[in-house]
Design goal:
By secondary structure, the chain is α/β, with parallel strands linked by helices. The protein has 2 domains: 31-130 and 342-432, NAD(P)-binding Rossmann-like Domain (Rossmann fold), CATH 3.40.50.720; 134-339, FAD/NAD(P)-binding domain. The chain contains 15 helices and 20 strands. It has helices at residues 2-30, 41-53, 71-74, 86-94, 113-119, 148-156, 180-190, 193-196, 203-210, 232-239, 265-283, 384-387, 393-412, 435-451, 462-468, and strands spanning 32-37, 57-63, 99-103, 122-125, 131-132, 145-147, 172-176, 216-220, 244-246, 290-295, 298-303, 307-316, 319-330, 333-336, 340-341, 351-352, 357-358, 360-361, 364-366, 375-381. It starts with a helix and ends with a helix.
Length: 471
């Protein structure tokens, strides 16, 4: 009798255990696995949205560098620390128990797009734009021509950029392009070094800027003042630089005062600021040693040893058409700043090499070699990789939220398969920096920076980063 009761009890326990195992298996199978490639603004904003709207979802963010934040860390000007406050929001997202940061892993090197798709229900590509557009003119590869993107990476401490060694021994630099990146570079070149010492500008860049002989910085664009790509905030900052004179060409503003009132408000305010500065230049000219020289309607034509030749352009609507008339600018260094460009890092990605972006419809990647433009279920793209390099961080946020919503909608509407068990990427044989590892790097940088009166001193040696992260 006792034995029979024991057997009955054991059978009941076995039944309960099988039920529990089944329930746990069901719960495990129900969990969604999303992988985001790229830990910049687009990646973090998308992760934030997905974690908020899919309670049964785990998000892995893979990043090729040991450190997160992408262009917020390596692209934002060091004298704009307020822009970097968004890192606080990203950190809150990273502290979610359903979030996992996997640094020091590269798509196309450590894993393929096929591997990711095998191990996640949805894959979102947000690895940004790592190259810059070229001018495609003779002698563009001359030693006195470098990319503004690389120059920004140099003073911001992107690993691999520390050996750029820009030649700042001449007195004139010409920036080709008039976006915010170009005007940021102009401001850094013309700023007093003492004003940068309290920022996270790298020590080697501070030393080079302290020894710089640059006194004149041209900012040349192919279109007119009404099409200038820089924003009012950036222009206002450079106009207020101490001991720097801004020199406009009055001929660039012909007929513009008459149409200012008809412009949309943002463009109107920017144009009014330019006209005000022009008026001040004429009424009470400054004679500072350093000069900021914006020039409009000039398109790069050819580069020579000590000058760059531009074609004068004519505007047809918003399009600049080169004419037969040209102008030569004596210059010691040329910085190309006509836009960033994304690249394909895996042959499995449907990438448009000409336009420099992943082919997609509202963030849903389209199938490769598909005549109908069919959606490649489960594969998404956000940020500059999906739109081209346009807009500011707010633009990126809105775009990332939109694509993240598409992912959530596709999951909830069973558009993508979420029934199959997915385990996430196997990283057991990789040197991976976790979020805890990043916090150790962060503490180290802040401590070193504090001793120098800076918010941080960025590490540029990847092996040292890995060591501090305990990898």
């Amino acid at each position: 009798m006792f034995l029979a009761k024991s057997i009955l009890k054991q059978n009941q326990l076995n039944t309960i255990q099988r039920t529990c195992n089944f329930s746990l298996s069901s719960i495990s199978a129900a969990r969604k696995k999303v992988c985001i490639v790229g830990a910049g603004p687009a990646g973090f904003y998308a992760a934030q949205y997905i974690l908020k709207h899919l309670s049964d979802c785990d998000v892995d963010v893979l990043e090729k560098l040991p450190v997160p934040f992408g262009l917020v860390r390596f692209g934002v000007a060091p004298d704009h620390p307020e822009v970097k406050n968004v890192i606080n929001t990203f950190t809150k997202t990273a502290e979610n128990p359903r979030f996992r940061f996997l640094g020091n892993l590269s798509l196309g090197k450590d894993f393929s797009i096929e591997q990711l798709r095998d191990n996640y229900h949805a894959v979102l590509l947000t690895y940004g734009a790592d190259e810059d557009r070229r001018m495609n003119i003779p002698n563009e590869d001359s030693k006195n021509v470098i990319s503004a993107r690389k120059f920004v990476a140099w003073y911001n401490g992107l690993p691999g950029s520390e050996n750029l060694n820009p030649d700042l021994s001449g007195d004139t630099v010409t920036l080709v392009g008039q976006g915010n990146v170009a005007i940021d570079v102009a401001r850094i070149l013309l700023s007093k070094v003492d004003a940068l010492k309290s920022t996270d500008t790298t020590e080697y860049a501070l030393e080079a800027l302290a020894n710089s002989k640059v006194k004149n910085v041209y900012l040349v664009g192919r279109r007119g003042p009404l099409q200038a790509a820089f924003t009012i905030k950036e222009l206002r900052e450079i106009l207020k630089l101490p001991d720097v004179s801004t020199v406009w060409r009055k001929s660039d503003f012909k007929d513009i005062p008459e149409i200012v009132s008809s412009l949309a408000r943002p463009r109107k305010r920017l144009t009014e600021l330019m006209l005000k500065s022009l008026d001040e230049q004429q009424s009470s000219p400054r004679t500072s040693e350093k000069k900021f020289l914006p020039v409009f309607q000039r398109s790069p034509k050819e580069i020579h040893d000590d000058f760059i030749e531009f074609s004068v352009t004519e505007l047809q609507g918003n399009t600049a058409i080169p004419t037969d008339v040209s102008e030569k600018f004596q210059t010691d260094l040329i910085l190309r700043s006509i836009g960033y460009k994304s690249v394909s890092v895996d042959k499995g990605i449907n990438f448009d090499d000409k336009r420099g972006y992943v082919v997609n419809k509202d963030g849903r990647v389209l199938q490769k070699n598909s005549q109908e433009g069919s959606i490649d279920k489960g594969l998404y793209v956000a940020g500059w990789l999906g739109t081209g390099p346009t807009g500011v961080i707010l633009t990126t946020m809105n775009g990332a939220f939109g694509v993240a919503k598409a992912i959530c909608d596709d999951v909830e509407q069973n558009f993508i398969d979420t029934e199959t068990q997915k385990s996430g990427l196997d990283i057991s044989d990789k040197r991976v920096v976790t979020w805890k590892g990043w916090t150790e790097i962060d503490k180290y940088e802040v401590e070193i920076g504090k001793a120098k009166g800076k918010p941080r001193e960025k590490l540029i040696d990847i092996e040292k980063m890995l060591k501090i992260a305990g990898v």
